[in-house]
Automatic annotation (TrEMBL), chain A:
Annotated EC: 1.1.1.100
Assembly and binders: Homotetramer.
Name the record gives this protein: 3-oxoacyl-[acyl-carrier-protein] reductase
GO biological process, one term: fatty acid biosynthetic process
TrEMBL record, chain B:
InterPro entries membership: ACP, ACP-like_sf, PP-bd_ACP, Ppantetheine_attach_site
Pathway: Lipid metabolism; fatty acid biosynthesis; Glycolipid biosynthesis; KDO(2)-lipid A biosynthesis
Sample GO molecular function, one term: acyl binding
Organism ancestry: Bacteria, Pseudomonadati, Pseudomonadota, Alphaproteobacteria, Rhodobacterales
Domain annotation Carrier: ranges: 4-79
HAMAP family in alphabetical order: Acyl_carrier
Location in the cell: Cytoplasm
Name of the protein described by the UniProt record: Acyl carrier protein
Amino acid sequence: MFDLNGKAALVTGASGGIGGEIARVLHGAGAKVGLSGTRQGPLDDLAAELGEGAFALPCDLGDDDALKALPKQAAEAMGSLDILVNNAGITRDGLMMRMGDDDWAQVLDVNLTAVMKLSQASLRGMMKARWGRIVNISSIVGETGNPGQANYAAAKAGMVGMSKSLAQEVASRGITVNCVAPGFIETAMTGKLNDKQREGMLAQIPVGRMGTPDEIAAAVLYLASNEAAYVTGATLHVNGGMAMV
Amino acid sequence: MSEGDIETRVRKIVVEHLGVEEEKVTENASFIDDLGADSLDTVELVMAFEEEFGIEIPDDAAETIQTFGDAVKFIKEAV
């Protein structure tokens, strides 16, 4: 089950906690992995850790030309590009009353527009191969909203609508498009919370703990596999029951 | 590249992509109405023509390419 031998996956945001784990798990299932992120150091470290079949592909998703070239670079490095995991994301939190235009635009650019462009540039090869997987990492916040994150929530909700549309467009070509929506996961992003915020959060989670990056990676592995061929346009919520949608 | 050569190469792409018999790919054959293409097939065909002939086919031009004859005519002018 979930064997990815012979497949090649590009993971954005691979220098982060969740992205790195996704790359590890896909590589562990036999896939070649392209590791994209802005910071060269962590990408090189991860590529060295994984060894054969792992390629560091640094890219600033805010740079339009670099972004559009990335899927081609990945396909050249790995021989093909069969699985795209759009995991990279940024936050620029603030109450909407006071949210600057830049904070809105940057979050939408990186978290939504870049996903559209990377998907678009990856599709040609997938269409020819009559097989492809696009897995977009959304967020529970895209479903529930969150004060201080109007920009982030808008981008993550937009990602879900975009994924459903694309899923319908390319289903007949053996390409599926799905989202994974994490709840609170132990990463650098949630590590910034103070004890009181952390307690308040845990009280809302029936499972009673934060999730771990490997629990997100497992969901990605499933959606990337052959076995998930009949799942498309779906959002898989991995949130400990925090929101049952 | 001779004009007959272009026609042969376009026909080959259409036959391979849509899985139709060569005889059906006539001058006035409509990709969608006669050759069973869906909208995604027409996008793929245009991308295949671009690749084969090293040309760019803008979206508004692509919309006018409805038949095999349209495609051959456009490509002859573009190459």
